Automatic annotation (TrEMBL):
Main location: other
Family the entry assigns: Belongs to the bacterial solute-binding protein 2 family.
Keyword GTP-binding: no
Protein name listed in UniProt: Sugar ABC transporter substrate-binding protein
Keyword Signal in annotation: yes
Localization, UniProt: Cell envelope
């Protein structure tokens, strides 16, 4: 725990120092007048952010906002691209390498499919930071750091909270086939819950089918009294399925958006595991800027953790305004 606090404190202090050195009162890059130590080329950093999120996904839109906010404050340039197909995501990395960007930020839901592309970026002298998923492979592929939460730990803590809430049989809903991080969440929940946990595979691109599948499972197995969604959209679908099945089960979910906030307030969702994805967009830009301007690194070879945090009725009002403006 102590090392995590040191890492987080280091990020906060480094970010403040960098903003003080490179930004004016408006938070944008100031011109180099020869009276400060920032290099003249410090505004030339171009970063390519490449994720496995789908277009319009509420979670990844917050990551995008975080990256863009950091870029504006630090005088960097950011391009954001996403593709749920691992092969297509690898090609996006290859394109960024060919464009000779100054840094790459990439999520690794399917790490092995991205291995060659990431290693080629590193060989080309482009610093890479991985985010969100794939932390176990990050250092192996040559990335300078990983920013995110440890999925198995987050799942374990969610399982413990559901057990403490009195649940005895849990349904863990996986919405993307082949996403290693989602399986880690369910495995962690199984460990923390200590009771019966069953996985249910659904397709995130078909919300109607998600609701139908969860409803059918609840009707066929009335012992299920807890549903763990791994995505905010799935959580909303699960809450609707519970009502449609006249079930007494309750929903908990990973990740936060305005709909989940409303559902927590209404009592339809017990809690959300908040990995604070805004930071997963924001912090890598700060880290790449620090590396470019001062050869700084963060993490010491360990992941820089953004979660898990938990949002429930006790603190939902505090974060609600930030969820509305797209930053939580």
């Amino acid at each position: 725990m102590k090392s995590r606090l040191v890492i987080r404190a280091g990020i906060a202090l480094a970010g403040v120092a960098l903003l003080a050195a490179c930004s004016g009162p408006t938070g944008t890059q100031s011109q180099n007048t020869g009276n400060n130590s920032a290099p003249a080329a410090s505004g030339d950093l171009k970063v390519s952010v490449i994720t496995h999120g789908t277009a319009g996904d509420a979670f990844w839109s917050v990551v995008k906002v975080g990256a863009e906010d950091a870029a504006k404050q630090l005088g960097a340039g950011v391009t954001y691209n996403s593709d749920g197909d691992p092969g297509a995501q690898a090609k996006l990395i290859d394109n960024a390498v060919s464009q000779k960007v100054g840094g790459i930020v990439v999520s690794m839901a399917n790490p092995d499919a991205l291995k060659t592309s990431i290693e080629n970026a590193v060989k080309a002298g482009i610093p890479v930071i991985t985010i969100n998923s794939g932390s176990a492979k990050s250092a192996e592929f040559g990335a300078m750091a990983h920013v995110g939460q440890e999925e198995s730990i987050a799942g374990e803590e969610a399982g413990k909270k559901l057990k403490a809430a009195g649940k005895t049989k849990l349904l863990c809903v996986i919405h993307e086939a082949g996403n290693s991080g989602l399986n880690q969440r369910c495995d962690g929940a199984r460990s923390g819950f200590g009771g019966a946990v069953e996985n249910l595979q659904v397709d995130i691109s078909n919300p109607t089918d998600i609701e139908a599948r969860i409803k059918a499972k609840l009707q066929s197995d009335t012992a299920v009294d807890g549903v763990l969604a791994l995505n905010p959209q799935v959580a909303v679908n699960a809450a609707s399925a519970i009502k449609g099945a006249s079930s007494k089960a309750q929903v908990a979910t990973f990740d936060l958006n305005a709909d989940v906030v409303s559902s927590i307030k209404a009592g339809d969702v017990l809690f959300a595991v908040d990995q604070q994805q805004y930071q997963q967009g924001y912090l890598p830009i700060v880290m790449l800027k620090l590396f470019k301007d001062n050869a700084n690194t963060l993490g010491g070879g360990k992941p820089v953790l953004t979660g898990p945090g938990f949002v429930d009725k006790s603190n939902v009002d505090k974060v609600a305004e930030y969820a509305k403006n797209g930053k939580r």
